[in-house]
Design a protein that fits this description.
5 helices; three-stranded mixed sheet; binds fe (ii) ion; single chain; alpha+beta
Length: 125
């Protein structure tokens, strides 16, 4: 079972102050008043620069299954940093009418992870 964690407000503020890629993404998501769609999300995420050290210091991982670290949730979107340890996976699933997109380049945060080496595009429909 997936573990879901909301970042503490102070931790989130620290992350966003150190990662202009994420803070800029949130600014953009908060400003738009429409559904961007996958093409626009893909464009935004391709150019994003993530401060991995700051992210690594602000999120955790679970021992039993992967962990969803909520950076921001609103009525219209969720910004989540998922962590998978070696051997953990996410089953194929349906978003039932919502869009789900990942940054183009997946990187490992902790140690070696075979999924990170195999992954190319992070886009999912
Ligand atoms: Fe998903």
């Amino acid at each position: 079972m997936v573990t879901q964690v909301d970042l503490e407000p102070l931790v989130r503020d620290e992350l966003l102050s150190r990662c202009t890629g994420l803070s800029g993404l949130i600014e953009w998501l908060d400003e738009i008043d429409r559904r961007p769609g996958l093409d626009e999300l893909d464009h935004r995420l391709r150019g994003i620069s993530i401060n991995l050290e700051a992210l690594r210091n602000c999120i955790g991982s679970a021992d039993v299954d992967y962990q969803r670290n909520f950076i921001k949730k609103s009525e219209f979107y969720e910004l989540v940093a998922n962590t998978w340890k070696p051997g953990q996976s996410t089953p194929i699933h349906d978003h039932v009418g919502s869009d789900c997109a990942f940054p183009h380049r997946l990187r490992r945060l902790h140690g070696d992870h075979p999924f990170a080496r195999r992954a190319g595009s992070g886009r999912t429909d």
